[in-house]
Amino acid sequence: MLNKLSLSLQFGKFDNAARHRAALPRHQVASWIRQALQSDAEITVRIVGALEGQALNRDYRHQDYATNVLTFGYSQQPVVTADLVLCGPLVAKEAKENRTTLRAHYAHLLVHGTLHAQGWEHETSEHDALVMEARETLILARLGFDDPYQV
Q1: Is the pTM of this model over 0.85?
Q2: How far is CA 10 from CA 6, 28, 142, 144, in A?
Q3: In what order do the strands lie in the sheet containing 5-11?
Q4: How confident is the model at residue 29 (pLDDT cuts 50, 70, 90)?
Q5: How many beta carbons lie within 10 A of that of residue 30, not counting itself?
Q6: Cα separations (Å) of 78 from 31, 38, 40, 123?
Q7: In the chain, N or C: fewer CB atoms in 10 Å?
Q8: In whole angstroms, how far apart are CA 36 and each of 53, 65, 99, 110, 137?
Q9: What CA–CA distance (Å, rounded) separates 28 from 8?
Q10: Mean pLDDT value across the chain
């Protein structure tokens, strides 16, 4: 049984935002996130341009560049509460470089961010990275996507 999800899906203003909106129908985003959830959740997903992505990464992580996904986790129990911010132009660039579809890369990053919101980490140790990558790969396989780490 899938967990309950309250989802807010937002799109900032940036070039080609319509392409990103078309790749991310609300029901699809909800399905991808639900597959990664281990409890009920309230999640906001915001797709932003490079400037907004860079500003958020600089202000909250003190790294002055846009990154593909930022996870702002507020609670894990009894309900996962988080904001996931994805930088649309960077996601599109990475999808092209990795020879995958925009849809598949968004699915991967949404699963990745949802796992972070639940306390999964990959920057703490090589073991944690391998465990998290294996979890992502399993979830994405259930969703019909190839292993994103076999590029």
Answers
A1: yes
A2: 13, 14, 26, 25
A3: 5-11, 41-48, 80-87, 69-75
A4: very high
A5: 18
A6: 20, 11, 8, 25
A7: N
A8: 23, 27, 24, 9, 11
A9: 13
A10: 95
